[in-house]
Amino acid sequence: MAVSRTSVAAGRLANVSDHRRTLDRFVLRARRIEAHSLARDRQALVSLSEFALRGHIQLDGTMQMRRALPNEEVFESLAARVRPVLVKSESVHYGRVLDAIQAGIDATESAVPENILVGLAELRRDWSRLDVDGTTVMRFAVQSSKIDGSESTPQVSDTQLAAAWLYGDLVHVDTRGRKSDGLLFPVKERYSAAVTYFAHAVALTLKTMDLVMALHELGVIDLAEDSLTEAVVVGVDELVEEGVAFVAPVDSPMPGLDIAIQELPEGFRPFTVTELLRQTQANQVQVVLTADDGSTVGEYEAAVSRRGEHNGRLHWEVLVGGAVTFEVSFGVKDDEITDGRFEGVTSRASSNRMKLAEAMLAREMSTSRHMSFNIAGGENFFTLNLPPSPGSEEKAFIDISIDTFYDLVVIENITRRALRPLTGEYNSADRALLRRTRLLWEGQVVPFRSGALPATSPAGVVPQVIMMPAMTLPIADTEIPVPATCIRHPLMKPESVTAVTDSDPALDEMKMVIPSDEPFVAWAPEKRQIVSDADLLHPSPWGLSHFDSHVFLGGWSEGTGISAPANAPLAPPSSSS
Question: What is this structure's pTM?
Answer without folding.
Answer: 0.64
